[in-house]
Design goal:
- The chain is of the alpha/beta class and about 70 residues long.
- Helices cover about 45% and strands about 20% of the residues.
- The protein has one domain: Rossmann fold.
- Strands 1-2-3 form a three-stranded parallel beta sheet, sandwiched between helices.
- It holds the Pfam family Epimerase.
- Pathway: Carbohydrate metabolism; galactose metabolism.
- Its EC number is 5.1.3.2.
């Protein structure tokens, strides 16, 4: 099992998260929700019965990255 850090959690990446979680990987998502919403992550949870870790923020923000890791 790998720990995988996804830097977007919107529509397209949510499909990737589903596949990763169903393959037994641990997934963490960092997204600023500028063009997506937490609904995508809720759908991932509904499809996989697993909850990916989620950090809301911008990848350019050092404090957000410290929180994520």
């Amino acid at each position: 099992m790998a720990k995988i850090f996804v830097t977007r959690g919107g529509l397209y990446w949510s499909h990737t998260c589903v596949e990763l979680l169903n393959s037994g990987h641990e997934v963490a998502v960092l997204d600023n929700l500028s063009n997506s919403s937490e609904q995508a992550l809720n759908r991932v949870q509904a499809l996989t019965e697993k909850t990916p870790a989620f950090v809301e923020g911008d990848i350019r923000d050092a404090q957000v990255l410290d929180q994520a890791f």
